[in-house]
Amino acid sequence: MGKILQAVFGALLFLSQMAYAASPLKSEDLGGGVYALIGSTGPRLHENLGLNANYGVIDTPDGAILIDSGASTAAARLLEAEARRLTGKPVRWVVNTGSQDHRWLGNSYFVAQGAELVALERTTRTQQSLGKGQLEALNPALKEQMSGTQVVTASKPLPGDVARLQLGGRVIELRYFADAHFPGDAVVWLPQESVLFSGDHIYVDRILGILPESNAGTWLKAFGQAVALQPKRIVPGHGQVCDVAKAQRDTGDYLAFVVGGTKKFADDMAGVDAAVASLGGTTDFRYLLNFDELHRGNVNRAYLRFESAQ
Predict the structure, then answer these.
(1) Neighbour count for residue 132 (Cβ, 10 Å)
(2) Is 91 within 8 Å of 129 (Cβ atoms)?
(3) At what angle do helices 2-21 and 73-87 cross, to 10 degrees?
(4) What is the mean pLDDT of each run of 10 residues along the chain (310 residues)?
(5) Quick one: how far is CA 146 from the chain centroid?
(6) In the 8-state DSSP scheme, what is residue 86?
(7) Alpha-carbon span 198 to 156, nearest angstrom
(8) Which of 21, 42, 191, 309 is spaced 20 to 30 A from 75 at the CA atom?
């Protein structure tokens, strides 16, 4: 019987290791029971379960805190497994930093497991307005991985711009600065550890995406307030764990270029075509992944936002 149990345990361990080896996320230990889960910088794919973003796990005596819940039920299960692997504990709390699909559509899975959702009111309002469309848009790529995925937001969202919480003895702050990639985007700040989980305020290694929902002008202001916290380590929304200098180069400087350039064209009523022709071919930020696919669209949408505000 002992040999049989050993064989069963060995097989389970092997399967667990195989599943982890196939994970689209790379874990990084930031010390003190704080971990980053780093996803790919490419598109949402069936192969990566839509996990083309970064997530966080924080260990507490009472359970794990998960920062952002993935784009689907399948993604949520994988994040749950990663959290348990890193902490040995179930996910007790899920904190949402934003409203893009891969930040929160896994919420329904975690609520079914008994986890508590934590989010600002500003964030949940945007989630509720976009959720149905996001589910429909993900179905073609993620297929069966979306099975059981539902639009679920925090039942007791937090009012105001700053919420200071103690979860399992951990002090975390959920902070809103200004509308950024999406309205209501927030960051998770760990003041005792000086670690910032920036959500989609910060992209490194790859170019950020200015979407129809984005406000590049206020995003730049929000970025400045986020880095003013002077974190020792930043877990960006996309890309590798970094410091403030790297975040400034890859996000702050790029946003400043797009905002400054498009606002001048909009103030002069020069037209979107002129703005894209002048700013769309710059080479200063070509080192960022996805530049050719996204940059001209970023200029276009930033210009149109400024033009509509006049």
Answers:
(1) 10
(2) no
(3) 120
(4) 46 39 88 97 93 98 98 97 98 98 98 98 98 97 96 98 98 98 98 98 98 98 98 98 98 98 96 96 91 97 93
(5) 19
(6) H
(7) 22
(8) 191
3-state secondary structure 108-125: HHHHHCCCEEECEHHHHH
Instruction: Extract the tokens encoding 125.
Output: 């309002």
Beta bridge partners of 158: 120
DSSP letter at 159? P
The pTM of this model reads: 0.92
DSSP-derived secondary structure letter, 105: T
Domains by residue range for the chain, with CATH:
18-245 (3.60.15.10)
Q: What sign does the dihedral 142-145-151-153 (CA atoms) show?
A: negative
Cα separation, 33 vs 19, in Å, equals 23
Give just the sign of the alpha carbon dihedral 220, 223, 229, 231: negative
Q: Give dist(CA 91, CA 55) in Å, integer.
A: 13
